Amino acid sequence: MASMIFSDCSSSTTARLLPLRCQKLRHSFNSLPFFHRVSLPLTSSRPSLPTLYLQAHSSSTFVSAKMATESTAKVIDGKHVAKQIREEIGVEIARMKEAIGIVPGLAVILVGDRKDSATYVRNKKKACEAVGINSLEVCLPENSTEQEVLNSITKFNEDPSVHGILVQLPLPSHMNEEKILNAVGIEKDVDGFHPLNIGRLAMRGRDPLFVPCTPKGCIELLHRYGIQIKGKKAVVIGRSNIVGMPAALLLQREDATVTIVHSRTNNPEGIIKEADIIISAVGQANMVRGSWIKPGAVIIDVGINPVEDSESPRGYRLVGDVCYEEVAKVASAITPVPGGVGPMTIAMLLSNTLSSAKRIHNFD
Amino acid sequence: MASMIFSDCSSSTTARLLPLRCQKLRHSFNSLPFFHRVSLPLTSSRPSLPTLYLQAHSSSTFVSAKMATESTAKVIDGKHVAKQIREEIGVEIARMKEAIGIVPGLAVILVGDRKDSATYVRNKKKACEAVGINSLEVCLPENSTEQEVLNSITKFNEDPSVHGILVQLPLPSHMNEEKILNAVGIEKDVDGFHPLNIGRLAMRGRDPLFVPCTPKGCIELLHRYGIQIKGKKAVVIGRSNIVGMPAALLLQREDATVTIVHSRTNNPEGIIKEADIIISAVGQANMVRGSWIKPGAVIIDVGINPVEDSESPRGYRLVGDVCYEEVAKVASAITPVPGGVGPMTIAMLLSNTLSSAKRIHNFD
Known about the structure:
Two copies of one chain form a homodimer. Chain A is α/β, with parallel strands linked by helices. In chain A, 32% of the residues lie in helices and 15% in strands. Chain A is built from ten helices and 13 strands. The longest helix of chain A is centred in the N-terminal third of the chain and has 23 residues, at 78-100. Chain A binds chain B through residues 178, 194-206, 230-233, 239-241, 245, 249, 252, 255, 257-262, 264-266, 271, and chain B through 178, 194-206, 230-233, 239-241, 245, 249, 252, 255, 257-262, 264-266, 271.
């Protein structure tokens, strides 16, 4: 079992970041109740579950392996790639509009008044507008009934100007999330979380209508940086329905040999150390250390974790699951946080919405 | 890459078994066109793809690690467990009949005149009768239209006395298998291969209506022999939709750390050697050698491969994917072939049919 201390890996400090809700200094994977949680990119329809960390100044008693003193890893620039993709999508949308007069439409259903959810929805709207996707929005009050949400979904399912439907999560606790998500027509489920899509993703010889946005963004980054997946040992850390599990299925489809490391895994470091490609999606600040990494491995860090930072005007900053400064010295390529996977998620959402419109209108 | 020779592992001979379709004596995983194939238990609705092997007398130049001279592994007796399960099912069916007057019904659709398919269907019928399941059968000629098959499925979907529907594969080549299988109502898909079932199997917090019979049988064997899965390293060899992939998902649901080894995997032996639990489902006679096994590992051998045997009255005998005599000396427990996973598949089919009838009639 791994003992872990959440060390700040910045070169300017040896500060240790401790989760507020966590009393002990050391934990095993098994004892971490939040290991299952995934802090998603801020643009996702699945909100991050923010964990604030206290900064405790003391040196880590744990870690770390011999490393080069200089960072050698190539930075996988998700911000840049996402911008490129958004431009490509914009061109395609213009071409479709000119050819058949159709503009893709994305509908978002927001229930309640969570500030973070409102921010995600606003970001999606802006991104849609920037590429020429028509953005529709329904905001329902916190005390809405399940039936009212279902009615909105039905309306969008039937609306031919809508090609993608997102229900912003989390829903109020009195609602059955599974029932509501399953009501989204499979051909408009641009989030790709419908079990039918996941099933098709898992099966050889079948194709999902949509691939979930964040894992799709991870694989797209590997492709755009020319990183070979076929035949490589890949480890996915975390097995959530929205990132870890579909990411593993995608890597498997691309002929990697995939292992999922999770909260019940014995000796996770040992398994991670053998990987050529690592996708980490657990929502644990700086959990993956430099000593866990095989030299030359490629790291995709999905975690976006807020940690307290008195020097930041907001009082916090965002870090990944991966101890960047340590790992960048060992890996051959790595995504930064922020600016790695985060911007890719919304780009993939736009891409899925465009694909949906193309499929529905039979436009190539 | 693994170089492999398909050695006969019987203690009475050093014979080497060469696949008829295979010209070279040595192969890498990558060059094996049939690595994807799975020879399923004879009772399955998915027929085995029989590969006949020529017996070439020469000693293996390859293998083998230091092993004890005596077999130490416990034999996981699938025949015995399957018998127990069939008895339990029989008791439950009698109880349901007495309580609510309902008898579970399984419908099988057979298209064409393949002898092996006819045998599988006959075996299922016999097994149904033995436990009290009502067995229905439709045999359609080879030159039937897709629509005729779909009509039969619709009839059974609507028939309240039918709780499970199986379409015996392979279908004639002029038919779209995916379209036909998808027509089976999800609530009667006792094979569990519908993508919606597979998706639910993959997702945390979701439950499939049915778990595919062969992988379900593998896990049931582990359970009945008290073999712990949680926290163990498990390797599934083969990634077929009907065994390997769902077996991996099942192990994952039980908190194993799972790796799927497949035809594109580099150094498969090295990965297999680290496993506490191995499920092999590739359809390669005697492929997994004793030297590939960690001492004390548990082996579930799904392969049922016919190899030529002049001493057998039938001219062939059945062997697993695993070189039994070698592996039994290293493993702590192992399924034999035949008599391991094979009998479990049909027991799980009966179990799924019973569960379906219970669910449809809301009987606990």
